[in-house]
Amino acid sequence: MTRSKILITGASVGLGAAMARDFAAKGRNLALCARRLDALEALRDELTAAHPGITVAVRALDVDDHPAVPRVFAELRDELGGLDRVIVNAGIGKGARIGTGRADANIATATTNFVSALAQTEAALEIFRAQESGHLVLVSSMSAVRGLPGKKAAYSASKAGLAALGEALTVEFVNSPIAVTTLLPGFIATDMAAKAGDARMVAPLAKGVAAMVRAIEHEKIRACVPGWPWRLIDVVLPHLPGSVVARMS
């Protein structure tokens, strides 16, 4: 099935903007939202100039403004004449060792990466239930596979919560016209990844996003992307001794 009307949150930079470029090149119509409207408008102009046959609708949206999420999603749906796919991508990578006086960073991480992702999921599925079709994509992280210590603890927990949500929804919508995909990206060359991981394990942005888009297009239930080395890490990480995991802090 070709999903021709795709909404992406967190679309102004990083993985969101890169996915928008990839889908635009495939001729898809896009609904893009993020906090920075100026960046979205620049991206829209870039995409429509490169691909004149597509429609790109943009809206400013802070996903932490939960009441605004369904309103903006509905506006974008109406502008495109429906939504076939919603990619819940907006997220942040703040974090500090828990109990060190930076509760604000950890609470912000948990709020944006899980609670706000839930708000986006609610809005997307309300649309999909009404139209009896759609594809929900949740962008989690390989950090969801194992609780990670230190400054990564809140981030890891927030992404694990999102992955669990995806698993639950996959079961709920099995054999229905609504599909659910949970993506677990490893380190892909964005500003967030540059701060988070070993440079030797960071995939180039084009390679990483191409793997994400392939998994989305095939509507995989759960996908570690890129496949190497993250599929192997997905198997190994839950079984590593705590002493080894402690060195990841």
Topology of this protein?
Layout: E1 5-9, H1 14-25, E2 29-34, H2 37-50, E3 56-60, H3 68-80, E4 85-88, H4 103-131, E5 134-139, H5 153-172, E6 178-185, H6 191-196, H7 205-217, E7 222-225, H8 227-236, H9 242-246
Parallel strand pairs: 1-2, 1-4, 2-3, 4-5, 5-6, 6-7
Description:
The chain has 249 residues and is α/β, with parallel strands linked by helices. It contains nine helices and seven strands, in the order βαβαβαβαβαβααβαα. It has helices at 14-25, 37-50, 68-80, 103-131, 153-172, 191-196, 205-217, 227-236, 242-246; strands spanning 5-9, 29-34, 56-60, 85-88, 134-139, 178-185, 222-225. A seven-stranded parallel sheet has the order 3-2-1-4-5-6-7, with helices on both faces. Helix 4 packs parallel to helix 5 (153-172). The radius of gyration is 17 Å and the shape is globular. 45% of the residues are buried. The model has no long low-confidence stretch (mean pLDDT 94).
Identify the overall geometry: globular
Low-confidence stretches: none
Sheet of most strands: 7 strands, parallel
**Structural class computed from helices and strand pairing:** alpha/beta
Strand order of the largest sheet: 3-2-1-4-5-6-7
Order of helices and strands: EHEHEHEHEHEHHEHH
End-to-end Cα distance? 42 Å
Structure summary, number of beta strands? 7
Instruction: Provide the gyration radius in Å.
Output: 17 Å
How large is the count of helical segments? 9
Helix content: 40-55%
Strand content: 15-25%
Q: Overall pLDDT, averaged?
A: 94
